[in-house]
Hints:
Elements: H1 13-25, E1 38-43, H2 49-60, E2 64-69, E3 77-78, E4 90-91, H3 92-101, E5 105-109, H4 117-121, H5 124-132, E6 137-139, H6 147-160, E7 168-174, H7 184-193, E8 199-204, H8 213-216, E9 220-222, H9 225-229, E10 234-238, H10 260-263, E11 270-272, H11 285-288, H12 295-317
Helix pairs in contact: 1-6, 1-12, 2-12, 6-7, 6-12
Amino acid sequence: MKKFFSVEDVTNVYEIIREALIIKKNPYAFRQMGKNRTIGLVFFNPSLRTRISCQKAAFNLGCHTWTMDIQQDTWRIEMNDGTIMKNTQEHLKEAISVMSLYCDILAVRTFPNLIDKDYDYQEVLFKKILNFSQVPVVNMESATLHPLQSLSDVITIAEYTSFFKKKCKVVLSWAPHFKPLPHSVANSFSQWISKIDQINFTITCPKKYEIHTKFSRGAKIIYKQKEAFTNADFIYAKNWSSYLCYGKIVGEHGDWIITKDKMQLTNKAKFMHCLPVRRNVIVEDNVLDGCDSIVLKQAENRIYAAQTIFLKILKCLS
Ligand code: CP
């Protein structure tokens, strides 16, 4: 693997899940692979899980890591080309090129601006980073995708279904939030799930919150949340802002919160969320704290998702 931007960089989704589960059983088995290797973790935006799970994944492989919070730790970075840099001190081109000289793998997080749909959806910033880096790049969440989260999510579903032994119904449910949020988790989850034949996938959201069709292709879209929940085996809750009215919150939909009553319509479904989650906004406490909540398992599996990807790239370097 030469880079990890999306599920399209993975040859076989089943195989990579299997590899992650093997690594999970024996996390230190490949400690020699990371000897004398460094992974640079670059954050244009905040993170708890991604940052620490990638550090732990690298440690398990015997790699050294460094972490850089852009703007906080660095000079003010200029993202645009051809500008007279009056208020910025270093251009993205030099910043990424130089950082890539100080590591063997560069992992980067860049959120969308949620203003310019084309800029975000063409992944302009991440494409520049891929271009400027002299080493393989890993997507730790870009404008439209969060593939390390999605890999962790499918690993988690594999664990709870004895590796997709029989067909199961997975529902991605939009849930309310006060702020306009990125689409990356919903897009990426849909993209990965669509590669698994045993999953019957439904997306439920209010009208005008439909995700881009290139990601939702193959999913059933249901606008009545309770109807979608019927017989579900997994409920994945997430807020995202509108794609149609780009980056906006459209209408009042506080009643889309995930409640115990709604979960009772399901087939004793497991509750999933990528975290961080706003309690009693997205989901009620009693669901998040209930015995069917598997959010911590998802968070734990972030280590093995990252470790599997880092290992695949390290194998290509050696
Ligand atoms: N789920 C996730 O990516 O969490 P962080 O934003 O804390 O990294």
